[in-house]
Design brief:
- The chain has one helix and four strands.
- The protein has 76 residues and is mainly β.
- The chain has a four-stranded mixed β-sheet, with no helix packed on it.
- The longest helix has 4 residues, at 37-40.
- It starts with 21 loop residues before the first strand and ends with a strand.
């Protein structure tokens, strides 16, 4: 019997600004989250794992650039 326990803690919280649209399935939005985002929750993720995609051309206002580092730019 394996008694190892993997304990995870929150490293980051993504808060979507009100002016941006998002979805898990629709593609015509500013941010399209990965459909398996629920699966990615509470797992050790490799550095650089993308949480979704952003609309081509960027969607960020000044001061929001850090959000974009969690997503792949465009390409849908």
């Amino acid at each position: 019997m394996n008694t190892d326990v993997d304990l995870f803690h929150t490293v980051a919280i993504v808060k979507i600004p009100d002016h941006l649209s998002f979805s898990f399935e629709e593609k015509d939005v500013d941010i399209q989250f990965a459909e398996d985002l629920d699966y990615l929750n509470s797992r050790k993720l490799p550095r650089g794992t993308s949480l979704g995609r952003t609309r081509p051309g960027g969607v960020w206002r000044e001061g929001e650039e850090r959000i974009g580092t969690l997503f792949q730019g465009g390409g849908w």
